Amino acid sequence: MKSYTLLGSDNSYYESETPGLFGGHRKNKIYGELDCPSALNAIAKGGYIKNRVFFATEDIAVAAGYRPCGNCLHEKYVKWKETKKN
Q1: CA 69 → CA 2, 15, 63, 79, distances in Å?
Q2: Among 36, 44, 54, 61, which is disulfide-ready with 66 (CB 3.0 to 4.6 Å)?
Q3: pLDDT at 86 over 80
Q4: What is the pLDDT of residue 85?
């Protein structure tokens, strides 16, 4: 059976039989959809891969301290940015 390495809300890795629904960049602490054009473009250019992480849910990504991607999760990013102004 295939196993997937996911990042938990405590920033610890764990194995799962279910693939992650969201991807992220460990260094920049950004999460987004697996088909995000920005992430796919960076991967195609050879970057991003060594810092790529996966999350089971969006709530876990947020709890781990990651922010929404400004491209594929634009509305959530705008809301997140507004909370940072206060």
Answers
A1: 28, 25, 15, 11
A2: 61
A3: no
A4: 77
* CA pair distance 22, 33, nearest whole angstrom: 5
> Pseudo-torsion of CA 37, 39, 40, 44, nearest 10°?
130
- Please count the CA atoms within 13 angstroms of the CA of 18 that sit on its side-chain side: 6
Tell me which H or E stretch contains 31.
strand 30-33
pLDDT tens profile 1-34: 899 999 999 999 999 999 999 999 999 999 999 9
- Give the list of residues 6+ apart from residue 3 with CB closer than 8 angstroms, or none: 15, 16, 17
Burial zone of 44 (CB within 10 Å; 0-12 exposed, 13-18 middle, 19+ buried): exposed
Ordered structural domains, the chain, with CATH: 4-85 (3.40.10)
Instruction: Please determine, for residue 78, whether its predicted confidence score (pLDDT) is greater than 70.
Output: yes
